[in-house]
């Protein structure tokens, strides 16, 4: 996503400014190592481009920046649940305003920390007290960490995902490896399947890979690069592309948008909220993804 020519609303440092796209304020990072953008709406990374490279993150050219709808593309924060196991789908974090808590920089890059806390609005959806922080480290690589803490006096259970959209040259040429063999196929009513070591796509995919390797590699021949995705704090990796039919059904994606994106997600997957991860009062869990280009 192109942010560098937008006028700064606020200058926070030599490398960090606040800009605005329609109704959404974005923390813009411009460092000698890389540029990036993090929308306060949803705590949503919308761009990451190492110096001299094309953006590694895909954003829809029809994404709705009205400060209400979840943004299409980028890295949505799906929390306190992932999927359609409760309403709203993928939780409320991706469509709620986050607070900019801290930013700091050095020769290696910039770190931006956002926060989301319980409010009357979140309590109506999910009746618990929490402290959620999103730490975005921008440098030679992008590291995004979601830290969630239970500050309630009772345990609560959650799931979630960092729903990364990668910006590929041509999805039909893309090769994926490292996702592991076993997956739950959401297109086959949750059937457990065994897959190949190298995956090439020719149709819709919506899979929860249950035994991913430490590194998932996405070979992108058209842009002459290979993405390396390393996840932590997860129990699975979700791969998703809606393909032509799915894209046509989305108002916030161009009909051909599927051709240049692939979701590779760091996921705490659960079939229901009750089957998610339980945090006791005072406990914290971290879910992270690190994205680089080889």
Automatic annotation (TrEMBL):
Under the heading Gene3D superfamilies, the entry gives: 2.70.98.10
**What's a single GO BP term from this record?**
carbohydrate metabolic process
GO molecular function annotation: carbohydrate binding; glucose-6-phosphate 1-epimerase activity
CDD domains in the record:
D-hex-6-P-epi_like
Q: Which UniProt keywords apply?
A: Isomerase
Per its UniProt entry, what is the enzyme's top EC class, as one word?
isomerase
UniProt keyword Isomerase present:
yes
Q: Which reaction does it catalyse?
A: alpha-D-glucose 6-phosphate = beta-D-glucose 6-phosphate
- Say which domain of life the source belongs to: Bacteria
Entry-linked InterPro entries:
Aldose_1/G6P_1-epimerase (IPR008183), G6P_1-epimerase (IPR025532), Gal_mutarotase_sf_dom (IPR011013), GH-type_carb-bd (IPR014718)
Give the positions the UniProt entry annotates as the active site: 163, 265
EC numbers for this chain: 5.1.3.15
Q: Pfam families attached here? A: Aldose_epim
Record PANTHER family: APOSPORY-ASSOCIATED PROTEIN C-RELATED (PTHR11122), GLUCOSE-6-PHOSPHATE 1-EPIMERASE (PTHR11122:SF13)
Q: Which family does it belong to?
A: Belongs to the glucose-6-phosphate 1-epimerase family.
Q: What is this protein called?
A: Putative glucose-6-phosphate 1-epimerase
- Source organism per entry reads Vibrio navarrensis
């Amino acid at each position: 996503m192109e942010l560098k020519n937008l006028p700064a609303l606020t200058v926070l440092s030599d490398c960090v400014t606040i800009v605005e796209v329609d109704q959404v304020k974005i923390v813009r990072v411009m460092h000698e190592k890389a540029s990036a953008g993090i929308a306060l709406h949803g705590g949503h990374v919308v761009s990451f481009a190492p110096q001299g490279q094309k953006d590694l993150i895909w954003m829809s050219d029809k994404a709705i920046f009205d400060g209400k709808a979840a943004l299409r593309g980028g890295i949505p924060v799906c929390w306190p649940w992932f999927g359609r196991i409760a309403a709203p789908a993928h939780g409320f974090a991706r469509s709620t305003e986050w607070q900019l808590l801290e930013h700091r920089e050095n020769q290696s890059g910039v770190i931006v920390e956002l926060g989301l806390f319980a409010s009357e609005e979140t309590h109506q959806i999910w009746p618990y007290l929490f402290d959620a922080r999103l730490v975005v480290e921008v440098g030679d690589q992008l590291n995004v960490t979601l830290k969630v803490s239970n500050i309630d006096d009772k345990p609560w259970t959650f799931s979630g995902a960092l729903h990364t959209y990668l910006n590929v040259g041509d999805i039909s040429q893309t090769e994926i490896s490292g996702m592991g063999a076993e997956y739950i196929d959401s297109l086959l009513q949750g059937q457990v399947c065994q897959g190949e070591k190298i995956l090439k796509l020719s149709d819709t995919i919506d899979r929860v890979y249950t035994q991913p390797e430490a590194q998932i590699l996405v070979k992108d021949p058209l842009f002459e690069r290979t993405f390396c995705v390393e996840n932590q704090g997860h129990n699975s990796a979700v791969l998703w592309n809606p393909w032509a039919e799915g894209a046509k059904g989305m108002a916030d994606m161009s009909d051909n948008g599927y051709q240049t994106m692939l979701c590779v997600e760091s996921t705490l997957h659960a079939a229901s909220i009750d089957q998610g991860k339980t945090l006791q009062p005072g406990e914290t869990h971290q879910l992270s993804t690190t994205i680089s280009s080889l």
